[in-house]
Amino acid sequence: MTLDPRKQKVLRAVTVDYIYSAEPVASQTIARKYNLGVSPATIRNDMADLETEGYLRQPHTSAGRIPSDKGYRFYVDVLMEPEEVPEATARQVRTALQSQTGGLEVAFRQALRFLSLLTEYTAIVFAPHLKGRQVKNLHLVPLDSRNVVVMLVTDPGFVQSRVVELASPLVEGAAEALSRALTQLLRGTTVGCAGRSLREDLEEVVSDPALRRQLLEMLGAGEEGAAGGGMQAEGATNLFKHPEFRDVERIREFLSLLEGKATLVELLAKIANAGGVTVRIGGENHSADLYPYSLVLAPLACQGRPVGTVGVIGPTRMVYSRSISTVQLVAECLADLLERFGR
Amino acid sequence: MTLDPRKQKVLRAVTVDYIYSAEPVASQTIARKYNLGVSPATIRNDMADLETEGYLRQPHTSAGRIPSDKGYRFYVDVLMEPEEVPEATARQVRTALQSQTGGLEVAFRQALRFLSLLTEYTAIVFAPHLKGRQVKNLHLVPLDSRNVVVMLVTDPGFVQSRVVELASPLVEGAAEALSRALTQLLRGTTVGCAGRSLREDLEEVVSDPALRRQLLEMLGAGEEGAAGGGMQAEGATNLFKHPEFRDVERIREFLSLLEGKATLVELLAKIANAGGVTVRIGGENHSADLYPYSLVLAPLACQGRPVGTVGVIGPTRMVYSRSISTVQLVAECLADLLERFGR
DNA sequence: GCTTAGCACTCTCGGCACGAGAGTGCTAAG
DNA sequence: CTTAGCACTCTCGTGCCGAGAGTGCTAAGC
Asked: What are the sequence ranges of the domains in chain A?
């Protein structure tokens, strides 16, 4: 069931040509541009075979061929020649991200900008969510007698803070004592798993009801924190440069895909547990919404545990080689960053 | 130079009809639907006059009329009947926003969601920027011996925090002493106006170079903080429901307007100092990028000082009456919130 | 048996003409 | 000043046509 060598060459030629031209590829074009040493007629026969085997599609009779999802998959797995990110560019990205002092959120945003700039697709990140992270530290910082900042630090160095208006004023020194007690109580607790016992323990330690409610909320359902529990995207407009987005309906679909998030988050969450760069092509996503898109995604881990996913989304007609190396680069930089913060 | 009463009625009819139908309005349509008691021919004459006076435009000969910017302006200032937000909806918005405990960022985001939902346009907020705010409090919270969270609290209760890796370990108790010293030094300082003297003072108080750099950065150029120093938008896809966005070029323009931000931020910053709801129609914005859009904007203030702007952006063919009342409602809720945090 | 030249066939796409429909502007009468 | 009537203009949808692109098939060649 393997493809004979010439058919592989034809499939590669069709794929590469279509990726760059966005036009169905004709047998003659291949004969002219990629010298396989055979005539258009022969190529035509191979293309017909490749179509019956499911690697190519024809938009309509008497048009050239374009790769099917299966064709892209074979291309990515077997035929594609890897493309390195130019060393100069790579260095630039690395230094920019490593010298980042503005905290993880800012670094993530910058990573997205790089990704969308270098690939010309839309960069997405499923930011490390607080849910599932362990509490490292909890601090109360009094602003004045009635207001206090609650600061929750979780595992890889995410800081989430909120201002609480207390029901009754704090006495001098109470904040520090409470901070110590709470940190001791909560250290190691997993955010999002606020069990009954925790609730009872809190009632003992914290007398102020407003503060207690706020703490429970922060430790609770894993809401979007400052680090962005949800998904972020950058460069949505990039996609509109590509001819598959000539019509408005497609644009609307794509934007509501990004805004709706649910479909994407589900996929990104799954990938967070994968190893290495994953390529998902069109229908492989088993979701009608994602059918016209391909994604190149890399998991993010901190001390061996998965914390999120980063990558790009674009049309199935994607420059996979470049996307893969770029995503890899950016993911590595972010991994370094996560280790640095995660100590 | 004032318009005679019947012409006003005609102008109102054309505007209202066009706002809802998005089709050029014919004299006969007006005669049929808005009974002004005159024949289409008379209305035609009035429309011709209104056109020479600049209130109406004709997309091409033998099409109906549509309002010009000047026409919309007259409609908004004189002809429009105010439309209240239904009490039930208003109550819902108020309670949802007032019971918000997740800090200003979350509340702002929710406000945007309401706005975009209720108006069907794109909601934007120029979030209170730290630049220009006064420092209220500065705290250092040690995480372990080498890492410390720097937390900067500015005037209306914005919290900005970053993790710093110190050049040399902290001794016990040093963090608290430093926090006190820094708060005393910095209280009342305006963020973004880090003068030379401040820099010298910091050198005396803070010996750690990494920490010093971080502090200067946070106090410095007024970068985007956690509260979002820049602009946020919600519901960009809303606009694509409207027929003026049938073609891809317009969509791309709009999205890059939102992503580019500069043009909008400039306008929003100006409005931040205004009083009450401001309506900007098309060309009134004196910016080619904004020419096809109208904005309904309200300033946000805290203790009498301007801190930002909130509103919606949509096509000039906008349901102004509804937009105005909705923006007003949301702005009031946010003002309450700002007062609560600003104590 | 694989490759290839030749040719008929199919499908898309741009251009053009045409007619219907919508709406105006003008004129002249009420 | 208002209005009926009518000619005029412009858009838009439709159908037609021809050019061009590309294939599939057949039969001949190696």
From this structure: 5-79, 87-129+228-341, 135-219
* B24 CB-to-strand C distance under 7 Å: yes
> Which of A180, A237, A245, A256 would you mutate first to test chain B, the one with the most B CBs within 10 A?
A237
Question: d(Cα A67, Cα A75) in Å, to the nearest integer?
Answer: 9
* Residue B24 CA distance to nucleotide D18 C1' (Å): 38
The CB density around residue B204, as the number of other CB atoms within 10 Å, is 9
- Nearest-5° angle of CA B289, CA A122, CA A161? 90
| Phi, psi of B234, deg, nearest 5 | -145, 140
Helix residue ranges, H only, A53-160: 69-74, 87-98, 103-119
Distance in Å, alpha carbon of A14 to nearest chain B alpha carbon: 28
Enumerate the residues of chain B whose CB falls inside 8 A of the CB of residue A146: 343
Given this model, what pLDDT does residue B331 score?
A: 96
Q: Which 3 state secondary structure label does DSSP give A226?
A: coil
Q: Is there contact between B22 and strand D, defined as CB under 7 Å from any strand atom?
A: no
Window 300-319 of B, Cβ < 8 Å to A: none
Q: Do B247 and A248 make contact, defined as CB atoms within 8 angstroms? A: yes
The fold adopted by the segment(s) B87-129+228-341 is Beta-Lactamase (3.30.450)
Q: Which amino acid is at B42?
A: T
Contact B134, B189 (CB under 8 A): yes
| Contact across the interface for B341 and A252, Cβ inside 8 Å | no
Secondary-structure class of domain B5-79 per CATH: mainly alpha
Residue A122 CA and nucleotide D20 C1' are separated, in Å, by 36
Low-confidence ranges of chain A (pLDDT < 70): 1, 100-103, 128-132, 156, 192-196, 220-229, 341-343
For B78-128, write each residue's pLDDT tens digit. 999 999 999 999 999 999 888 766 667 778 888 999 999 999 999 999 876
Rounded Cα gap, residues B332 and B330, in angstroms: 5
Q: Count how many residues are written for chain B.
A: 343
Are residues B245 and A248, on separate chains, in Cβ contact within 8 Å?
Answer: yes
Residues 6+ apart with CB under 8 A from A158: A104, A128, A130, A133, A225, A226, A227
Helix or strand holding residue B334 (H, E)? helix B320-341
Number of other residues whose CB lies within 10 A of the CB of residue B275: 9
Minimal-distance CA residue of chain B relative to A240: B252
Nearest chain B CA: its distance from A103 CA (Å): 6
Place of tokens 């900008």: A113
Helix (H/G/I), strand (E/B), else coil: A273? coil
Find the Å distance, CA of residue B27 to C1' of nucleotide C23: 8
Tokens representing B195 are 């003068």
Q: Which of B101, B164, B255 to mutate against chain A (most A CBs within 10 Å)?
A: B101
Number of C-beta neighbours around residue B274 at 10 A: 13
Strand B135-142 relative to strand B122-126, pairing: unpaired
pLDDT value at position B189?
A: 79
- What CATH architecture does domain A135-219 belong to? 2-Layer Sandwich (3.30)
